[in-house]
Amino acid sequence: MEAIQSFGGIAIGYWFYHLLTQPLKFKNKLPQIKIKALEFLPSLKIKLKNHIIHIHHWIFLSAIFVVLLTITTGFAQLLIFKSFCVGGIIQGFTYSDRFKIIIKN
């Protein structure tokens, strides 16, 4: 049962972020939400004077995954959420700009 939850969560996470991050499909339909220099949608970005820091979804999903591993007593607890994060992280690594975090203005 745990294997089914794991693979299902990974597949759903991968699929969800694949749809959400497609620039020509769903991403352009999202509203732009920002407060001063912090943009939440369609991408998570922090605008500085001469640079933009782009927090890719695989970065914050990695942080969430580590927090989930830390606060739970076993890997099977919250397994669907952990595997969803892993699926999103894997999907994030498929992009060529995956390590391009600091961008010059």
What does this structure look like?
The protein is of the alpha+beta class and 105 residues long. It has one domain. It has helices at 2-20, 57-71, 79-92, and strands at residues 33-35, 38-41, 44-47, 51-55, 102-104. A hairpin with a 3-residue loop joins strand 3 and strand 4. The longest helix is centred in the N-terminal third of the chain and has 19 residues, at 2-20. The chain crosses the membrane at residues 58-81. Keywords: Membrane, Transmembrane, Transmembrane helix.
Map the helices and strands.
Layout: H1 2-20, E1 33-35, E2 38-41, E3 44-47, E4 51-55, H2 57-71, H3 79-92, E5 102-104
Antiparallel strand pairs: 1-2, 2-3, 3-4, 4-5
Tell me the major beta sheet: 5 strands, antiparallel
Whole-number tally of structural domains? 1
Poorly predicted runs of 5 or more residues: none
Order of strands in the sheet with most strands: 1-2-3-4-5
Number of strands: 5
* Count of alpha/pi helices: 3
**End-to-end distance:** 49 Å
